[in-house]
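Example for tutorial group B:
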């Protein structure tokens, strides 16, 4: 009875060709196989943020955080959850099990969140879901400060110019702005003036909602012509907001400037970020899970001088934290230990 291996004994040339083919394929695969100290793992964190403007922490915890937690806990793939209820904001952090499929978990969590939207109080904003895969702590922090520019202008420049450049660097998962102040029109109401004009804060809010809104008018068409219609339905400057009519009665007009101090400020003043006692706006660089930390941070350092050269006058930027310094020091210490061990072995 002939065996399969007999053909290679009878045809040595064929056996040689097959052996050489296997050898060449092995050489080719050497450069393709990854070399890792530990098996590749993936951990993900899903954050659910819900805003209810004006609500105190107890109200947020009872009517927003608790229903969301009870519903989200029914999703599969969750390792543990934590939540924080602050003034006007509910934040739920969901840590997924190791190597659990992120897209599947995100879909289930989103479904559970939508299931309790009808239980929220009126005025609650839509929950925002964000997912972060891999290391949840930034690998580098870049600080931007100025003695001339206010924080809202610094934040606006970082969002428009700096953040896209950093996120475009190969291997960067995200460039998150910390301590940013977004532009917002602030109307600081004077209670005494409101009482004098027989007005309340709700009256001012209704006047703003009724007179400052975006509207798409559309277009009109004829047989031979089409005209696009536009209408200025929103306010654009501080003066326009100041002249907004809040109340009109008996020929008397009460404008917003009569009952409030209107300024172009920031969206919130509840938080600020500092490093070594210096207040600034920071950008945290997070590295993608499959990317090499040292290579990514090196690319960011190569791009950063160009960003510094284009900063507006009066704005300074510098790298305030770089985690690769610790990695390099550990590598140097390991090499020194190995060299010392080799020297001792040589003496013995």
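The residue assignment follows.
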């Amino acid at each position: 009875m002939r065996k399969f291996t007999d053909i290679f004994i009878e045809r040595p040339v064929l056996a040689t060709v097959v052996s050489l083919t296997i050898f060449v394929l092995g050489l080719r695969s050497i450069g393709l196989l990854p070399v890792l100290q530990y098996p590749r793992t993936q951990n993900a964190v899903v954050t659910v943020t819900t805003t209810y403007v004006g609500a105190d922490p107890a109200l947020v915890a009872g009517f927003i955080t608790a229903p969301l937690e009870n519903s989200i806990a029914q999703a599969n793939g969750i390792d543990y959850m934590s939540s924080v209820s602050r003034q006007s904001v509910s934040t739920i952090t969901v840590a997924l099990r190791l190597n659990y499929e992120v897209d599947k978990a995100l879909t289930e969590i989103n479904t559970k969140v939508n299931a309790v939207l009808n239980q929220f109080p009126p005025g609650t904003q839509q929950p925002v879901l964000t997912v972060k895969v891999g290391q949840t702590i930034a690998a580098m922090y870049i600080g931007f400060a100025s003695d001339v520019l206010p924080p809202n202008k610094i934040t606006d420049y970082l969002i428009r110019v700096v953040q896209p450049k950093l996120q475009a660097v190969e291997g960067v998962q995200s460039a998150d702005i910390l301590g940013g102040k977004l532009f917002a029109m602030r109307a600081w109401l004077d209670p005494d003036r409101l009482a004098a004009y027989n007005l309340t804060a709700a009256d001012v809010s209704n006047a703003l909602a009724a007179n400052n809104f975006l509207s798409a008018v559309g277009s009109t068409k004829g047989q031979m012509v089409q005209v696009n219609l536009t209408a200025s339905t929103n306010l654009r400057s501080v003066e326009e907001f100041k002249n907004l009519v809040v109340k009109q009665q008996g020929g008397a007009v009460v404008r917003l400037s009569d009952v409030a101090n209107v300024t172009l400020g920031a969206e919130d003043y509840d938080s600020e970020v500092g490093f070594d006692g210096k207040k600034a706006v920071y950008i945290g660089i997070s590295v993608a899970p499959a990317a090499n930390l040292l290579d990514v941070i090196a690319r960011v350092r190569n791009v950063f001088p160009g960003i510094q050269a284009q900063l507006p006058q009066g704005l300074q930027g510098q790298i305030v934290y770089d985690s690769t310094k610790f990695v390099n020091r550990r590598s140097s210490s390991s090499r020194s230990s190995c060299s010392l061990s080799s020297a001792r072995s040589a003496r013995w």
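The first helix runs from residue 6 to 10. Compare this with the pattern of hydrophobic and polar residues in the output above.
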